[in-house]
Here is the input.
Amino acid sequence: MLLEELLRHDWSATEIERALESDDASALLADADRLRGAVCGDVVHRRGLIEFSNHCARNCTYCGLRRDNRSLKRYRMSGDEVVECARRADRLGYGTVVLQSGEDPGVSTDELARWVERIKRQTRLAVTLSVGEKTLDEYRRLRQAGADRYLIRFETSDRLLYARLKPESRLQERLEKIYWLKSLGYQTGSGCMIGLPGQTVATLVQDLLLLEQLDLDMVGVGPFIPHPQTPLASERPGTIEMTLRVVALVRLVTKRTHVPATTATGSIAPDGRQRALRCGANVIMPNVTPQTYRRHYEIYPNKICLTERPEDCSACVGGMIRSLGRTVTDEPGHSLKLAPSS
Ligand code: SAH
Ligand code: SF4
Here is the structure.
């Protein structure tokens, strides 16, 4: 397709299905790379990831942090540690920090809000939160504290599969929270996993159409990776081939969004993140969690970058970006949907 067509094209379910099932994905991946170049340029945004607590009150059947996993050593960083990590991310030239955790009742929303306020006062960083489901008032409180963005994946658009993955909640509630976040003025990100047990190509088609319909600022997708201490331990992982097709389609279908080359994608194939950056992705999330905690944030096994220091991750990711002929920036990399002046 010509670039002008890629910029305008409204993808139908049938076209998405064909793209997911075709024998040869090379044209699809190349189209996504061209569209990425047109809407994002060659800059790759780095979002420093702080995994501040692995406590979780939920019991998602796919995730190693689920409350029934008794073999996980639990940790919770202090406010001072979190703020220090953010300052480090600032010094490394990242424009954003992402504060992520399980749904930890040990960190109150007020406390989290105070951390956000301190980071906003002491750094020039954009702050993204990824701490799961909260009430509308709690989301409002965090937004008022200065949080700019929120990541909350819907995981799958299939209602029944969702109920198997998250037995205590409903897809409709998750989607409602995405709308709340948008209405509060957060730059909002969502996404799904690829290769979930029981997921079909038809499910992925619906996932992509839902991502488009939600009109998001960020879209993160990655392969499902079975964790041995979960009910889904013996299921098969998602494949790199399908993951890259979905990354490409995320770019092609949602167009003006920030799309990360996710850590999970890099964990199932040695060059997974580089490949994702070449078929639509324009963001990477280097880890800035201190080494002592990092290996305990085991949402899935064989996660990459478990022993490196934040400085090592910075050098590695910088080298990776340059080796692809792309550039880094210390800008926050706000939503591509905001007016240029904001
Ligand atoms: N507790 C928050 C944020 C932490 S989990 C939340 O659930 O939103 C962040 C993401 O990790 C989840 O949205 C999920 O898509 C991903 N994840 C969890 N377990 C995984 C697994 N076994 N394989 C791949 N991705 C996983
Ligand atoms: Fe907790 Fe999030 Fe893992 Fe679910 S996916 S168990 S909410 S950390």
